[in-house]
Amino acid sequence: MAIWRIEDDCIAKSSKLTLNYNGPNPFSIYQRVKNIIKLVMLVKGEDIWERDFRWTNIGDPKSFFIRLYVSKKLDLRTSMLFELVFQGSQPSDPNKNGNLTLSISARLITDYKLESAFQQSILYRNLLRLYHLLFYNEVRRSFLNNCGEYIDKIFERIRSELKLETKAV
Q1: Could you give the CA distance from residue 79 to residue 74 in angstroms, rounded to a whole number?
Q2: pTM of structure
Q3: Confidence of residue 61 (pLDDT cuts 50, 70, 90)
């Protein structure tokens, strides 16, 4: 099955935002961030999944790396895909200071499925491009603005609740 895919970064200034934390129990921030995302984006647990979860048991502090994805379906064609990367070290004693770097990026993805022979023809593809430019592009731009607003809300909520320093990369 062929697909015509259009992807855009939701963060205008850079490809990702980064939050840094130095303090007690940095691993606990992971669960708190998941809850913040559920509240801000109004997504369910099934829309959130871990692609990587690595934990080193050697030495103290123990290092960890988590890659988390959040998908929010907007309509039949378009969805937002957020990627959060948690990387840090957790001391055995949670009261001791550890560190965490959290990177957040997001993309707006639009897929036009080209399943039949007619849909894969040049005529159909050109009609689809025309439809996209004349009608759907404005809808998609509003979705892109919404995606940026979600990033801002998540970013500010995490920063204020967890008192983290921030920087754009």
Answers
A1: 5
A2: 0.86
A3: confident
